[in-house]
Write a structure and sequence with these properties.
mainly beta, Substrate Binding Domain Of DNAk, Chain A, domain 1, five-stranded antiparallel beta sheet, five-stranded mixed beta sheet, 10 strands, elongated
Length: about 120
């Protein structure tokens, strides 16, 4: 199956990165690296967009206590053949692995689904 729309991730700083292009072969995975903004940051939030403009969901990652500022947190987003979207954050040095808690947007997506 091919992706019927593009999928982008907008980070806490407002920057956006295209994860899956329209027409890409599914299943697909993409990784974006974020950094903690301050020491002890406990939450990382980002937003998933369909076709760069339609909010699909907000993803929230609960981080462990004690992370330093500028700690790199790779976020991996996967899209299954049935258009299901999942995300997780990993930080290898501390063996952190956190699945995203999604807040699905009011206006449901046209193509992708969370879960």
């Amino acid at each position: 199956m091919n992706a019927p729309a593009s999928l982008s991730l907008r980070g806490p700083d407002g920057s956006s990165q295209r994860l899956v292009e329209r027409g890409a072969v599914l299943p697909a995975r993409a990784r974006v690296v974020f950094a903690t903004a301050r020491p002890g940051q406990r939450v990382l939030e980002c937003a998933l967009y369909e076709d760069d403009e339609r909010l699909l969901a907000r993803a929230r990652f609960e981080l462990p206590a004690g992370l330093p500022a500028n700690c790199w947190i790779p976020v991996e987003v996967s899209v299954g053949a049935a258009l299901s979207v999942a995300a997780e954050a990993r930080e290898n040095l501390r063996r952190l692995r956190v699945d995203a808690a999604f807040d699905v947007a009011e206006a449901s997506a046209r193509h992708f689904r969370i879960g």
